[in-house]
Q: What sequence folds into this?
């Protein structure tokens, strides 16, 4: 009961300017920000990572495939992309950047929303994204690897500058760098950066792109990982290394832990307990986002290989329906359909296809064919 009272109080709060943290954001970017806020409680957008780059058994084709579209008849509303390996011709998933740029432009032209993560290798060591040797101090201003971070961020800025529509207007992007920072598997996580170093790294990144490179088509997202949060201290742990209200637009979190993911499933945790933890984590996110006047989102989730045939309606839709306040999240994004054995949306012929269609047909869930225009007011 106390949690519901706190949630109601937070939702009643409407303080703060209705502007993104980039006060010079382009009109389209500002419209996206405001429309995502207006959507709260009215519908939840569905998204997938790399939804247009390939499908299960269809790797990087010249002609474009989309398992989501081929199963349910519509593209996702939200397209997730990654620009890790920014110095090369292809990203960390071996998708060529030229193709990513083309597909982003095509998705935007249809009205879709673009969110980009950055699985970048460690600029301080030259190692990969999972090289967790201490690097934070070396990358910040005054550190011996700061120039390399600046070089890579400059390339990131160049990538964003090339994202323009057919009239030359910048395409809005939700940029989600340094995600899952409360975990210990990325160089910006708890092994590679102290809490204060992470805050400074995030703040420097926003400032450099916005103020030094004069890029104004970005909304900025942060997303800790649920697996490293104590259920008894969710507010504290969700706010680990919070970089400041002045550099975050979207407050999300990644949660594979509470939704039956075969890679994480602990048999000692019952299905009912998983469902409860999932609901409580979403509720806490919405409380904190409302308190800070941010847009809440479930920035990553999913069940690898869809080992539960009715995963979409049982694990995701039912909690949202039973607890309407949870529908205030702006979107849900599942991970990519990479290859047989590693996929998060059904592909044609998969046993979960009908459940996915039922999920899509629920009026709460919005795919691209059901979206209102998001880039104008």
A:
């Amino acid at each position: 009961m106390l949690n519901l009272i706190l949630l109601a109080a937070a939702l009643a709060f409407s303080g703060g300017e209705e502007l993104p943290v980039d006060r010079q954001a382009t009109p389209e970017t500002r419209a996206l920000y405001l429309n995502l806020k207006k959507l709260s409680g009215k519908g939840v957008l569905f998204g997938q990572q790399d939804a247009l780059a390939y499908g299960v058994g269809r790797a990087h084709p010249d002609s474009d495939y989309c398992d989501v579209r081929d199963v349910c008849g519509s593209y996702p509303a939200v397209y997730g992309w990654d620009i890790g390996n920014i110095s090369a011709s292809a990203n960390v998933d071996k998708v060529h950047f030229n193709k990513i740029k083309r597909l982003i432009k095509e998705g935007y032209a249809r009205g879709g929303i673009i969110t980009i993560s950055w699985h970048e290798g460690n600029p301080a060591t030259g190692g990969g994204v999972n090289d967790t040797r201490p690097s934070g101090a070396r990358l910040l201003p005054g550190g011996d690897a700061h120039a390399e971070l600046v070089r890579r961020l400059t390339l990131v800025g160049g990538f964003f500058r090339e994202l323009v529509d057919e009239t030359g207007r910048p395409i809005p992007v939700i940029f989600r760098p340094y995600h899952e920072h409360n975990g210990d598997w990325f160089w910006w996580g708890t092994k590679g950066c102290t809490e204060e170093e992470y805050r400074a790294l995030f703040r420097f990144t926003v400032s450099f792109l916005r103020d030094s490179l004069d890029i104004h088509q970005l909304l900025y997202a942060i997303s800790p990982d649920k697996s490293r949060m104590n259920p008894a201290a969710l507010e504290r742990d969700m706010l680990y290394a919070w970089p400041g209200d002045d550099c975050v637009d979207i407050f999300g979190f990644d949660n594979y832990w509470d939704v039956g993911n075969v890679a994480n499933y602990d048999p000692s945790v019952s299905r009912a307990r998983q469902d409860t933890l999932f609901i409580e984590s979403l509720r806490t996110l919405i409380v904190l986002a409302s308190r800070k006047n941010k847009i809440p989102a479930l920035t990553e989730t999913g069940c690898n290989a869809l080992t539960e045939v009715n995963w979409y309606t049982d694990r995701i839709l039912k909690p949202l329906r039973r607890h309407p306040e949870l529908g205030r999240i702006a979107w849900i994004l599942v991970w990519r359909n990479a290859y047989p054995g590693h996929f998060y949306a059904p592909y044609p012929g998969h046993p979960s296809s009908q459940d996915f269609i039922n999920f899509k047909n629920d009026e709460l869930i919005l795919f691209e064919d059901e979206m209102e225009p998001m880039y104008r007011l």
